[in-house]
Amino acid sequence: MTFRRAILAVGLLTALSASAQESDSELQLSTDVVCWYRICSAAPGMENYAMTDPNHPTEEAGDYDDALRMAIYLLPTETENHNSQWKLTAGEDGKVILTNRATGFQISNTSLSRGDHNVTCLGASGTPGFTVTSLGDNAFKLERVEDDGVNRCLALAERDGEALAYPQTGESTSIVGWKFFPIEIDTGIGTKEAGRSFIRVNAGRISVSGCSEWQLFNAEGEEMPRTVKLPTGVYVVKLPQKAVKVLMP
């Protein structure tokens, strides 16, 4: 894979014929418990390329207006890179807002026209967000109706590539498919041991820092060994003060 291919813009294109499917997995909206996701393309060979905000943290950003016009890129960053981690919160009318962990910037619901692409950029807080629809196989489509009345969806696009052609069907591995990998969950619980407890998901395993007294259960309520590599599914981490649902992609 060439360097030109490695840096990719997240483009937008008109959604013509995609049909919604029933959700076969779950995404967790952050409320009192905050879940940070790494959002990667579902296209073959792009599993390690994550949506990344290349800016500095909000409080250190120079010209905020310029920052808002920055495109979102797909980069092969490290799993721990906060610039490639996003939380999902509820917006208006069932929409989902995506906020970056490192910068606090959100993905805008309005794109910018750049050559053959309508490029996704960063937006101010309170943007209406996206409609999230399952495509099957733990992949999702993100779309929204923009100010011009056109419905567009986030799609994999080369920065200097040709105009995009929307796929005839909404396969999970198409350029409109995205996979959400949970990286860390802030439980919101203060502990005597470390002041805060965090649930981390990595390489098929779930671990908890800041709390030694925790249990792991599968969706059927059966207790699981804490060190075993887990198959895809929904699990429950039971902490002293609350239970947290965790998705293993």
Task: Please tell me how large the radius of gyration is.
Answer: 18 Å
Summing up helix and strand content along with how strands pair, one would put the structural category as mainly beta
**Uncertain stretches:** 1-6, 17-24
Tell me the distance between the termini.
25 Å
Mean pLDDT: 81
| Helix/strand order | HEEEHEEEEEEEEEEEEEEEEE
By DSSP, the count of extended strands is 20
Q: Specify the oligomeric state.
A: single chain
The global form is globular
Query: Can you count the helices?
Result: 2
Largest sheet: 8 strands, antiparallel
Binned, the helix content reads under 10%
The portion of residues forming beta strands comes to: 35-45%
Describe the structure.
The structure is a single chain. By secondary structure, the protein is mainly beta. Helix content is 4%, strand content 40%. The chain has helices spanning 3-6, 64-68, and strands spanning 8-14, 34-41, 50-52, 73-75, 86-90, 96-100, 106-107, 112-114, 117-119, 122-123, 131-136, 139-145, 151-158, 178-186, 198-202, 205-209, 215-218, 223-224, 233-238, 243-248. Strands 1, 3, 4, 8, 9, 11, 12 and 13 form an 8-stranded antiparallel β-sheet that branches. Strand 17 (215-218) and strand 18 form a beta hairpin. The radius of gyration is 18 Å and the shape is globular.
